[in-house]
Structure prediction request, 653 residues.
Amino acid sequence: MPAREGTYGLLAEFDTPGDLIRAAQQARKDGWRRMDCYTPYPVEEAAEAIGFHRNKVPLVTLIGGLMGLAAMFLLEVWISVLAYPLNIAGRPLYSWPAFIVPAYEWTILWAGLSAAFGMLALNGLPALYHPLFNAPNFRDGATTDKFFLCLEALDPKFELAEAKKYLESFQPLSVVEVDY
Amino acid sequence: MTPSELKHDLERRIDPATGEYRVIAPGQTFRSVTEKIVRIVLTPTTPLGWFALFGVAGAGATMLLVAVTWLFLKGVGIWAITQPVAWGFAIINFVWWIGIGHAGTLISAILLLFKQSWRNSISRFAEAMTIFAVVCAGMFPLIHVGRPWLAYWMLPYPSTMTVWPQFRSPLLWDVFAVSTYATISVVFWYVGMIPDFGTMRDRAQSKYAQYFYGILSVGWRGSVRHWMRYETSALLLSGLATPLVLSVHTVISFDFAVAVLPGWHTTIFPPYFVAGAIYSGFAMVLTLAIPLRKFYHLEGLVTERHIDNMGKVMLATGFIVAYGYGMEVFMAWYSASHWEAFMMWNRMFGPMGWAYWVLILFNLAIPLTTLWSRKLRTSIGYMFFISIVVNTGMWFERFVIIVTSLYRDFLPSSWGTYRATKWDYMTFVGTLGLFTTLFLLFVRFLPMIPMNEIRMLLPQAKITTKATAKAGD
Prediction:
């Protein structure tokens, strides 16, 4: 990522999730797109308010699970039929019912790993640095008891003085400018 | 406290809307619950009691190390296993420990899917219990194989011997079931802690703690976009862990059910094992939760409601276990098999019959008659007692299943007996020490109650705007 300079965005702090959602809904209605909410626990209504409705984690999980299923089943068939056939009282080599259990376990293993690491990757994590950590009130509140709305400078509507006035119209606890 | 104060205190803890105990005691804020949980970890002084317990548990873990070292030097001959009882304490303890782990997954995954939000307070340490129980369990088959340094032969890998594993054996299925279970449990546990690590990072004062929790938090900042993917991921992991946990004990029961021995060769085993696992697991959650809430003053977060609900789950799973015992006796008669009937008679009245009656007393007679009473279910002392009783009873269940089917098999000429040696006992007690050591480290260094999930349970999390909140005042 190229090094950026100047303002990352404006961060408004709210006391309750309700106030945050009201502000986010209004901002979305007024045409803001580059914005995000920060909350100490999942607030689904805030995600809806900024227009984030669906995510790709289920798709990643499905693909991972199917890959695990195919990988283990094919491995078992290859080992038991081709690589190391064991003739035990003439029983069939391709005894697929016995192969289901490990294939089932690997479906779950790969799907679970995909769900966890896919979620982190889609979130762009690990990202130990983020400009918002520069805001003086962010770290005390965002992971404990405060609710934040950030209008980002990348939004075409962003103009510092006007955006500040706009955010203040929602009567937040504070509005701070966040630098990169 | 005077009686009237006690009565007032009791009324405060009961939710008038439902008549049940509250999930969270009233009067908490987002900040107060956060501080309460964070302070246990980010404290400059560790309570002396912790050190005392750690000393005892560490001694147990050291004993395990000694027992396992001697085992590696001398071989499994130091244990009591021989013909005909080739599976002794190692397999009993393996099945017992892994069963204990199952309640953690049940609480964190299955109850999440059923939207049982009361589970939020206990889910984190129940998951930790799962992982540490799986650590103890997984060790037993590995040290039981005789040459544990060659245990990796169980994995399918291209070896210079061009030998491959036999995929039609339940013992190999176990390798995949248990390793998947351990991996998914760790991932689920860690993902669940990421937002809380963010909180720890932001609340930590010392530089080292900030780095430590900062790295563990992978830079979590609470964006709602992240939260939504996180919630989807947690839900999917729960949906995956649910069939997984059922499959793990099912596969373990296949180890027995696929064999032709009387008492093992039965189709009731998978559901019977899974129910028994959950039964003993909930007992272990109680064994851990009751001292923890007392010691760390968490009565406001782990309330009588949790104890009561866990008592109900134990009552239900206990009856499934009772059905399993009943069905075993019924099948011994109904199968009209001489061997099955003799096995059951020998199990009840043979030389080791006392063990059968211990399990009937501890798993059925004591808990299933008393857990009906709500008064006893919410009595902390009684529930602690019952949790120990059930854990002991479930250990005896595994002992009875394994030993009584093996020591009197088809031919009287090959009958034997089983007397555990001191190394067997040292290994078993040693895993209790290892488990407690790991658990003590967990409560000292990691947030033992999921803060983000507790915040969702508070009345403040209900969506209101300033205008409506004012109107409501």
User: Anything to note?
Assistant: The longest helix of chain B spans residues 170-203. Chain B has one domain: 11-459.
